[in-house]
Design brief:
By secondary structure, this protein is of the alpha/beta class. Helix content is 35%, strand content 18%. It holds the Pfam family CoA_binding_2.
Length: 157
């Protein structure tokens, strides 16, 4: 599947969890994703086992703690934490996963990508949901173009 189609499918989900949100939001990537999705009308859930609230909203220690569950997950943690997150997704039946990555290594874990795909999940292993409509802004669209051209965003998932 082409990444653009996978992104559209992911963003068609209305209940999205974002892992790796921080209590200190200043420019933190997960917090930016969390805020933008919330502002765009998504039901978005902050996941951080060491925080009770984030961005003025309740924060959950893990995906299983979210009442009613979620349809999709943005992983915004260090790559080594992505493995545990995709295993939890598999246990909970969550089939849409996005491993956030911009200019650095981001949250992409090759072992987590392999595990998720082996368990029937659609995994976008790079880029950011904010680079795609309806969550995109002009800056993120430009970043998408640059990162796509440099291979930092996969063309297919």
């Amino acid at each position: 599947m082409r990444t653009k189609a996978a992104a559209a499918q992911f963003l068609a989900s209305r209940r999205i969890a974002v892992t790796g949100v921080s209590r200190t939001a200043r420019g933190h990537g997960s917090n930016v994703v969390y805020q933008r999705l919330r502002d765009r009308g998504y039901q978005v859930f902050a996941i951080n086992p060491r925080a009770a609230t984030v961005e003025g909203d309740r924060c959950y220690p893990d995906l299983a703690a979210v009442p009613g569950g979620v349809d999709a997950v943005v992983i915004g943690t260090r790559p080594e934490a992505a493995d545990a997150t995709v295993r939890e997704c598999a246990q909970l039946g969550i089939r849409q996963v996005w491993m956030h990555r911009s200019l650095d290594a981001g949250s992409v874990s090759p072992t987590a990508v392999e595990y998720a795909r082996d368990h029937g999940m659609t995994v976008i292993d790079g880029g950011c949901p904010l680079m795609y409509d309806p969550a995109a802004d002009p800056g993120h669209k430009l970043m998408r173009c640059v990162l796509s051209c440099t291979g930092r965003i996969p063309r297919t998932v």
